[in-house]
Amino acid sequence: MKKILQIVLICITIIAFAQNKEIIKLKGNIPNNGGNEYSALHVIDQRIDKTIGILPFDDHKETREVVFETSPNDDLGNWYRKSNYKGGKQELILVLKELKLSVKESGGTRDFGTIDFSVQAFAKERDEYHFLYKKDTVFAFSGKNVSDIMVKNIHHIFSGFLSLTYNKKPNVDILTINEA
Q: I need a surface site. Which of 3, 45, 105, 145 has the fewest CB within 10 A?
């Protein structure tokens, strides 16, 4: 009887915690229409704090942790592969330095939210890394359901960054992964 009770409690705990996550959905296509073709996209997650954010949802009735479905590398890499079949000699490497969502309650009908976003892009061929592009910025949002708005716009932020990156020419200087 104790075993059955333990199993039931474990199942309830798992279900309760599983519902407190808001998964980032990477929608749409991110085709590479630039001059450089890449065989794959890889993400090196160098965020100090791996928590993206714990935000209020549903008129502040519930807080949820914002997460990638699996990992930044897997999710962004699969998203890239779905839109780019050609391949190339180089790989596109993203170094994710910061992805942090936060909300400030205004006390009124509108809340204010920010997305701290910092990422660098490199072209990798063999063990050589060539710098392409860097974005280090804060996006500001306001609205009644600002948490929903921010989570739904993360894919736009990444797709905009990738669109700009596709058209950049790799720097001639060679870096190692430790210098990136």
A: 3
